[in-house]
Amino acid sequence: MAAGAVADADDRTRDRVLSAVLEHGPVSAAELGDLLGFTPAAVRRHLDNLSRAGVIEVKRAARSGGGAGRPARRYVLSSQGQSSLGNDYLDIAALALQQLQKAAGPDAVRAFAVERFADMERRYAPEIDKAGPDIADRAKALSDALSRDNFVSSAASIEAKAPLPAALSSVQLCQGHCPIQELASRFPVFCDVETEVFSRLVGVDVRRLSTLARGGHVCTTHIPTGRLSAPEPAGSPAAPASLVEVNNHQQERP
């Protein structure tokens, strides 16, 4: 095979690896190999090239189930990789929001963010309610819904070990891609409103640990699972069972 053809084939393969990191990240080299049908050595070669190019980064994550051993190496898109997806429309949106804030104040920007995430909440709520009252199950359903919307989400259960009480068990919800990352970095209220939606959907107060908008490798949300979701308020038959008051002081402020 000619050198040019080999280079083209390598580029196509590297693009496939990059797309898989975007879609499935945080993801390990072994998982990528299974997904793409490549040998571990071939996957790592392309991951090394992408890492040197600055478009992916290594995230060390606790192993599932909290077992002993070194943290697993998992790959996510870097800030440069996120930006390479194109953000011209976000620049236009940011300019429009700046004008809106100037004319009508920050409450108008928040109202815009609330409206944007209202559609997500309406679409996700029936599916998450089908998962039942268990918070871990609801968090997994939320992660699945986010992944279908290209947020590249995962949900890892973290079990509290003795002598810590089981009530301290949690799920870490990670999002490897944010379609409005640049917008959220300029207007943190988008992160705040999204966190509020997550809290209502799963049924407990949640806390943002990191966000892409603040330079994190992923958006990470801490979801406590040591109790059932909040019951439906008495005398409010129209309110969904998942609604709870959000503790804004527990949320990350980008």
Description:
There is one protein chain. This protein has 254 residues and is an alpha+beta fold. The protein folds into two domains: 81 residues, Arc Repressor Mutant, subunit A (Orthogonal Bundle), CATH 1.10.10; 158 residues, no CATH class. It is 49% helix and 13% strand. It is built from nine helices and six strands, in the order H-H-H-E-E-H-H-H-H-E-E-H-H-E-E. The strands form two sheets. The protein has a four-stranded antiparallel β-sheet, covered by helices on one side. It has a two-stranded antiparallel sheet with strand order 1-2. The longest helix has 25 residues. The chain is globular and about 55 Å long. The termini are far apart. The C terminus is likely disordered.
Class of secondary structure makeup = alpha+beta
Summed over residues and divided by their number, the pLDDT gives a mean of 78
Q: Name the strands of the widest sheet in spatial order.
A: 3-4-6-5
Element order, helices and strands? HHHEEHHHHEEHHEE
Q: DSSP strand (E) fraction?
A: 5-15%
Domains, number: 2
Could you tell me the number of beta strands? 6
The coarse silhouette is: globular
Number of helices: 9
The stretches of 5 or more residues where confidence is low (pLDDT under 50) are 228-254
How much helix is in the residues?
40-55%
The description of the largest β-sheet is: 4 strands, antiparallel
- What is the terminal-to-terminal distance? 51 Å
Please compute the radius of gyration using only Cα atoms.
20 Å
